[in-house]
């Protein structure tokens, strides 16, 4: 069976995994993200330790901005100093294998489409709902990147005239439907607020109700415009979706065209804690456009 190397580059930690074409993880190495030079050296070192003669390609999943066509990382805000990093060129030179780079939201969309909650469907939207908010779009069975690779930046869309800041914009969806946005209520992290809500704390419950309503407004726009089969939501939604579900569904019922609502499922990511690993492997396997 073919094997691949997947590299998941995050703002606080990185992972290098070896897996097969079924999406099964065979080996994994994790380490903290530090400065650019040291992190790249760690990536090369761990890749060299787990690569085998069965490895066919290397995939890199990383937050944007980036250029997937040229394989260059272009200064993501969570990776200071990574202003122009031709990471696929580095990997190919070192390991003599094809290497590919993809935005992490797109990579997760492909992973859930191939191996997770969207398996078998033609139209899928994946929402990150982690520290930030972004989307990956599978439309008519292909990844959709847009004219300049910026499709799916839903966190930058305005929700309110002013308010919480996310993606550099006050009042944006990322300012309300993300871990960073939820923290701006000043009542604790998303994880802490979930614990408080389940213990009956009224202020925490109110935050989750409002978050559910805000999320519902975003999902309504996506359903009416793109008419997906399924919307898969990761990270915080996978852990606390039950606290938002009722409020979210009320908005969807009120706002979405009935045939579009009936056709679409809203579900948590199925791949769970392994999503980032499988996403990087999916990049290595190649992505249909």
Structure explained in plain terms:
With 289 residues, the protein is of the alpha/beta class. The chain folds into 2 domains: 116 residues, 2-Layer Sandwich (Nucleotidyltransferase, domain 5), CATH 3.30.420.40; 150 residues, Nucleotidyltransferase, domain 5 (2-Layer Sandwich). The protein has 9 helices and 14 strands. The strands form 4 sheets. It has a 5-stranded mixed beta sheet with strand order 3-2-1-4-7, sandwiched between helices. A hairpin with a 3-residue loop joins strand 1 and strand 2. Helix 6 packs across helix 7. The longest helix has 25 residues. It is globular and about 55 Å long. The relative contact order is 0.15. It comes from Enterocloster lavalensis. Belongs to the ROK (NagC/XylR) family. InterPro entries: ATPase_NBD, ROK. GO terms for molecular function: kinase activity.
């Amino acid at each position: 069976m073919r094997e691949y190397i997947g590299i998941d580059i995050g703002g606080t930690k990185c992972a290098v995994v070896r897996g097969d074409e079924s999406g099964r993880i065979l080996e994994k190495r994790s380490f903290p993200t530090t400065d650019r030079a040291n992190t790249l050296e760690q990536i090369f070192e761990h890749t060299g330790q787990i690569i085998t003669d069965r490895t066919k390609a290397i995939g890199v999943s990383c937050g944007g901005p980036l250029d997937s066509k040229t394989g260059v990382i272009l200064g993501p805000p969570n990776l200071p100093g990574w202003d122009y990093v031709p990471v696929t060129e580095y990997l190919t030179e070192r390991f003599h294998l094809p290497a590919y780079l993809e935005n992490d939201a797109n990579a997760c969309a492909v992973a859930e489409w191939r191996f997770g909650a969207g398996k078998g469907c033609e139209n899928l939207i994946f929402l990150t709902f982690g520290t930030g908010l972004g989307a990956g779009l599978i439309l008519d069975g292909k990844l959709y990147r847009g004219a300049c690779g910026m499709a799916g930046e839903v966190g930058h869309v305005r929700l309110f005239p002013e308010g919480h800041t996310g993606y550099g914009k006050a009042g944006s969806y990322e300012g309300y439907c993300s871990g960073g946005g939820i923290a701006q209520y000043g009542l604790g992290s998303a994880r802490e607020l979930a614990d408080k809500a389940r213990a009956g704390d009224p202020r925490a419950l109110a935050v989750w109700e409002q978050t559910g309503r805000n999320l519902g407004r975003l999902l309504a726009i996506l359903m009416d415009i793109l008419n997906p089969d399924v919307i898969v939501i990761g990270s915080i939604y996978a852990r606390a979706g039950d606290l938002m579900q009722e409020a979210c569904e009320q908005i969807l019922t009120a706002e979405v065209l009935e045939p579009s609502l009936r056709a679409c499922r809203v579900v948590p990511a199925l791949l769970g804690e392994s999503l980032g690993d499988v996403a990087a492997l999916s990049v290595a396997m190649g992505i249909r456009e």
